[in-house]
Amino acid sequence: MPIKPAMVQCLLIFFFFLNQPVAAESVASYPEGWETWPIVKESMTLPADTVLPPDTSLFIQESVKAYNWINEGRGSALTIRVHPDKLEQYQSHGHYTDGPTVVAVSEVDGIIWVTEHIAGIAIYGSYNRKGEDVSEMHPTLDPDFCHGCHNTYQDICINGTCAEPVLEIFGR
User: What range does the record give for the signal peptide (predicted)?
Assistant: First the structure.
């Protein structure tokens, strides 16, 4: 049986993940220069005491529960930046080329969530502004947590990037 390119990609991805440490460490790399990437969206992590409208999507409900600890439960502005070479891909929700794709920055705590693509698959990481891995700081910063949520809500998180800003539920 001839080896097909898709088989090679699957094997490479398998060996990539096989060689990852067992501890919660970021899989996506810290993208140097992310500060200059275009801002495509502004949102926020909501405070712990937020009362959501009854018709709020399950994705937003779960996001609020997951990140209500940010800034000691007071929430934070969230800035979404996209790698300049991937703006068109982001606007059409992928397919994404390899490399860093999107960062979401918690402006108060300085947490930087990174989405990167390798062979069409989204991988995730969490860093501080110094580029230090912070994925062990809280269970919701673990790349497996990110992967689980992004894969569960594929109607909103298309090709690994999510597109339902939390502020829209409040009409802002």
Answer: 1-24
Distance of alpha carbon 85 from alpha carbon 37, whole angstroms: 9
| Of the candidates 97, 99, 94, the residue with the CA atom closest to the CA atom of residue 114 | 99
Beta carbons of 123 and 3 less than 8 angstroms apart: no
**Percentage of residues in the chain with pLDDT exceeding 70?**
81
Q: Is the peptide bond before 95 cis (omega within 30 degrees of 0)?
A: yes
SS3 76: strand
Average per-residue pLDDT in the chain?
A: 84
Q: DSSP string covering 77-140, please?
A: EEEEEE-GGGHHHHHTT-PPPSEEEEEEEETTT--EEEEEEETTEEEEEEE-TTS-B-TTSSGG
List CB contacts of 27: < 8 A, sequence separation 6 or more. Answer: 17, 20, 116, 123, 124, 125, 143
Indicate the domain borders of the chain.
Answer: 5-170
Q: For residue 102, which of 119, 121, 122, 120 has the smallest C-alpha distance?
A: 122
Cα pseudo-dihedral 91, 11, 8, 125, rounded to 10: 20
Render pLDDT for 117-158 as a digit per residue (tens, 0 to 9). 999 999 999 999 999 999 999 999 999 998 888 888 888 888
